[in-house]
Write a structure and sequence with these properties.
Chain lengths: 318, 250, 94
């Protein structure tokens, strides 16, 4: 194809997206669109499955049977969401194994928040309330993103996700209405998860490299800073209901903007964790890679068995 | 309170609780996303069954104890699950072998229990049968895949079957509560399930190109509260919160 | 060896009376496993009463580049639609 023809195709393509038409797997698409989508969707999928680990850490220690079942179901949903997203990503011509490889080798990123440790039961509450809260803000707009398979996966994810945040908030509420030890546990969790949750919505707009293109392709509908503000404005009143204090002395309602002003985010910490030096980066990767490697003989066995059975069937047919 | 019925229910429920706990440990660490999701489903079914049993037991007790008191606040000696279900997740072969060896028993057991004169137990059993039929299908399919898969998988699943075999005979031991409940038409005479069990298991093992262990040496004790060394660690996890923060709501 | 589990497409009938609809895909070594995985992945919340699985490679798809010749000729066949025909108002239901 000549350069001019490609340019023409690109124009038609961009116009389709601007008209809110969906792009489907076999449609022509610019290479950059494909690559950007593989990166974002897989990053999202990786976040789901790495995200299983910090919460999985508490399944065996959940304090009641009801909580144990809810947490199991939640972590299982995350596996399901990872699966939907990997599947969406595979429609772009890359296999799940290749995507795993990128994750395991450290080439692909996942949400940095999962590199923080879950040290108390209250962390299950804080993650559900704050981390899922921030995730939902990020995800809801993606139900209308331009790439069909991604949008459909997100519709499913968002529908299922709705219980996650409530589950977390309920855990917090129980703690806050409980003994002083429980309330302290809840406050401590909020103290540790608040700032990472704000960071989770991404670097400030000034630092963010992909925003403009992503907006055009509807991979993003609002900027990181807008999302962060939305998250803070919706979360502060919830903390009030819990009777917890947001660990930010500069947090203040601003009459004029109708929003909360907040303190400086420690971006050095953010970049340190992104670059692999958070408290649990190594452990999370070790767990993922370990599970994958320990499972190799199982996956091989299933393939070998399938091939044998197939052969047997063919033989019988003859 | 009817002590025998109470203890009888706990004996059944502890198997589901402890196996559900073991499977829960695996969540996020399975050989593929798909198997992870399946394993969690089985764990959720078992925890669900446990809750139904314990809620019933708590009601029978008639005091202010809850399902969670029963689940989390007993001494190791007071748990009466079979040794089989507390065995660790050594590798995926052990997980599937443990599952299958229990599932076959579990389904036979529930099919009998649905005829119990106790309506609540019969109802719990009826619901459980559907769940456990699927568990057995899932674990049985995996035994076949691993047995007739690669050389390595064949060796590994055979090793697991051989190691866990010693815990199978205990499934058919009758406890004091068992005897009383069976006499009243409430409980199941587990000794009667034994022949069917071993026949079904060895048929599947054969199909999976695996050898049925011939050892006649069996290990028992769980049903009487004498557990393997693994149990203490399992309970440390299970009971951690309730022991560290007594008398609180979660 | 390490061959990857192939990809399968999953179709679920949500309830009797409705058609099977494409729900998504997953990986499985064989059809049996694909069915079981589909049950665990796509019907966790009671979403189905029947499942079909088919290996993705067995699906033949039309090429979007052919959309013009495949689908556009149908656009001007308005006479296939009931609104093409003029009837007097007195004929209410037809």
């Amino acid at each position: 194809m000549s350069e001019k023809e490609v340019k023409n195709l690109e124009e038609i393509f961009e116009a389709r997206i601007a008209r809110d038409e969906k792009i489907e797997p076999k449609d022509w698409m610019p290479e950059k669109y494909r690559k950007t989508h593989i990166r974002q969707i897989s990053q999202h999928a990786h976040s789901e499955i790495v995200g299983m680990l910090p919460e999985g850490n508490w399944i065996s220690r959940a304090p009641s049977l009801r909580r144990k079942a809810a947490l199991l179901a939640k972590v299982q949903d995350e596996a399901g969401h990872g699966l939907y997203l990997y599947s969406a990503c595979e429609t772009l011509g890359i296999s799940r194994n290749e995507l795993y490889e990128q994750l395991h080798s450290g080439k692909a990123k996942y949400s940095s928040i999962f590199n923080y440790p879950t040290v108390t039961w209250a962390d299950m509450g804080a993650i559900g309330w704050l981390v899922d809260g921030a995730a939902i803000i990020n995800q809801v707009p993606l139900c209308n993103t331009s790439y069909g398979p991604y949008a459909r996966a997100m519709v499913r994810v968002c529908k299922e996700e709705s219980f996650h945040q409530r589950q977390g908030f309920e855990i917090m509420l129980k703690l806050c209405n409980g003994s002083s030890e429980q309330k302290e546990m809840a406050q401590d969790a909020l103290n540790r998860w608040w700032w990472p949750s704000l960071m989770m919505l991404g670097p400030t707009d000034a630092e963010s490299v992909h925003t403009e293109q992503s907006m055009k392709w509807k991979l993003k509908r609002k900027t990181n800073d807008e999302l962060r503000q939305q998250f803070i404005d919706q979360t502060v009143p919830q903390a009030d209901i819990l009777g917890l204090t947001i660990p930010d002395p500069n947090l203040k309602w601003n009459e004029e903007t109708g929003s909360y002003d907040f303190g400086e985010i420690d971006w050095d910490e953010f970049w340190q964790v992104v670059k692999g030096h958070g408290p649990c980066n190594k452990k999370r990767m070790k767990d993922r890679v370990g599970a994958w490697e320990r499972g190799a003989w199982v996956r091989d066995a299933a393939m070998a068995y399938a091939e044998k059975t197939e052969k047997k069937k063919l033989k019988e047919a003859i | 309170m009817n002590e025998d019925l109470y203890n009888y229910i706990l004996g059944i429920a502890d198997n589901s609780l402890i196996l559900g706990q073991r499977l829960g440990e695996l969540c996020g660490h399975g050989p593929s996303l798909e198997t992870d999701i399946a394993g969690t489903n089985i764990s959720l079914d078992l925890i669900g069954q446990t809750r139904s049993y314990f809620q019933y037991a708590a009601k029978l007790a008639g005091d202010d104890r809850t399902e969670d008191d029963i689940a989390f606040l007993r001494l190791e000696k007071q748990y009466t699950n079979v040794l089989l279900v507390e065995q660790p997740n050594t590798h995926f072969g052990y997980v599937m072998a443990r599952q299958y060896l229990f599932d076959v028993f579990h389904l036979l057991f529930l099919k009998e229990l649905q005829g119990s004169k106790d309506e609540t137990l019969a109802a719990i059993a009826k619901k459980g049968i559907k769940e456990v039929s699927y568990h057995k299908r899932f674990s049985g399919d995996w035994i076949k895949r691993l047995g007739d898969g690669t050389e390595e998988s064949h060796a590994k699943i055979q090793e697991a079957i051989d190691d866990l075999w010693t815990y199978t005979d205990e499934l058919f031991d009758s406890t004091a509560a068992d005897a009383v409940m069976t006499a009243q038409g409430i409980g199941v005479d587990v000794s009667k399930l034994k022949d069917t069990y071993y026949k079904e298991v060895s048929d599947l093992l054969e199909e999976a190109t695996l050898a049925t262990p011939e050892s006649k040496y069996f290990t028992r004790g769980g049903k009487k509260g004498t557990h393997s060394e693994h149990m203490g660690y399992l309970l440390s996890d299970l009971q951690y919160m309730q022991r560290t923060y007594p008398n609180m709501n979660w | 060896m390490s061959k990857n589990w192939p990809l399968w497409e999953v179709f679920v009938r949500s309830k009797n009376g409705l058609e099977h609809r494409h729900f998504g895909s997953l990986h499985a070594a064989d059809a049996e496993m694909a069915l079981e995985n589909a049950r665990d992945v796509y019907t966790r919340r009671n979403e189905g009463v029947s499942i079909w699985v088919v290996e993705s490679k067995d699906i033949t798809a039309s090429n979007p580049a052919d959309n013009g010749e495949l689908f556009e000729p149908a656009q001007d066949k308005v006479y296939r639609h009931p609104t093409f025909y003029d009837l007097p108002d007195e004929v209410k239901h037809m």
